[in-house]
Design brief:
mainly alpha; Arc Repressor Mutant, subunit A; Four Helix Bundle (Hemerythrin (Met), subunit A); 3-stranded antiparallel beta sheet; 68% helix
Length: 231
């Protein structure tokens, strides 16, 4: 079982407040500082962050609700594993939510909305050329969140934000697959053009294929990593 190797920077130690504990731990899980299977020790985390155990316990409860950790009775608290099943479930539900958002919001797309989406894609290209994978992840999710926001559906937005945490974690894995980060741009431009043409069927198909393919790429990468580790 992997061990907790979480080690916050001095600045994190100074600036972390109670409300920040969950975000610090969440980011460590997303970027892999706390890998799948890592055991989380409340006392050690509290000591490293210079706080009492109470805020850590509250943060762990929140992360468990988000599906990032699991509490095993009489054993401990562990970072959840990224398995084929969890990834398939995550991306299949993501596809349903985003296609619903796209369909619901199709008539709401105005010229300024579409121009904003094009600008996001342009920024993705710039970040890919700059090899800035962190910002590329943010822009990728910003693009898809914009589709959901355009649907003007509060519950949908809430559900998507819950999924976003898991998706962000997967994207850090997925972007390691590509020979070039330019490949991350993928079908984003084609999706924007289909929306501009008001072709709901084509846009929905592009979005579905894009999301499902992304999930399959994460599964393929994780399987290859497991094969390497098994040697």
């Amino acid at each position: 079982m992997a061990q907790d190797n979480f080690s916050p920077s001095p600045m994190e130690l100074r600036t972390t407040l109670r409300k920040d504990v969950a975000e610090v731990l969440r980011q460590a899980i997303i970027d892999g500082s706390l890998p799948s299977g890592a055991e989380l020790n409340q006392a050690q985390i509290a000591e490293k962050l210079g706080i009492s155990r109470g805020p850590v316990r509250e943060a762990l409860g929140q992360l468990e609700q988000e599906g990032l950790i699991r509490n095993v009775p009489y054993k401990g608290v562990y970072v959840t594993e990224l398995t084929d099943k969890t990834i398939e479930e995550l991306y299949s539900i993501r596809s349903v939510l985003e296609i619903f958002a796209l369909t619901r919001g199709m008539e709401r797309f105005k010229s300024e909305n579409l121009e904003h989406m094009r600008q996001i894609v342009d920024e993705m290209r710039k970040m890919a050329q700059a090899q800035d994978s962190e910002q590329l992840v943010n822009l990728d999710l910003q693009f898809h969140q914009y589709i959901v926001e355009n649907a003007d559906h509060e519950l949908l937005m809430h559900l998507w934000k819950l999924l976003e945490i898991g998706v962000r974690r997967c994207l850090h894995q997925r972007h390691q697959i590509y020979r070039s980060l330019d490949e991350v741009i993928g079908s984003h431009p084609a999706l924007v053009e289909a929306i501009i043409d008001n072709n709901e069927e084509l846009a929905g198909q592009i979005l579905h294929d894009h999301i499902i393919e992304a999930g399959e790429q994460v599964v393929t990468y994780l399987r290859s990593q497991q094969a390497v580790e098994a040697v």
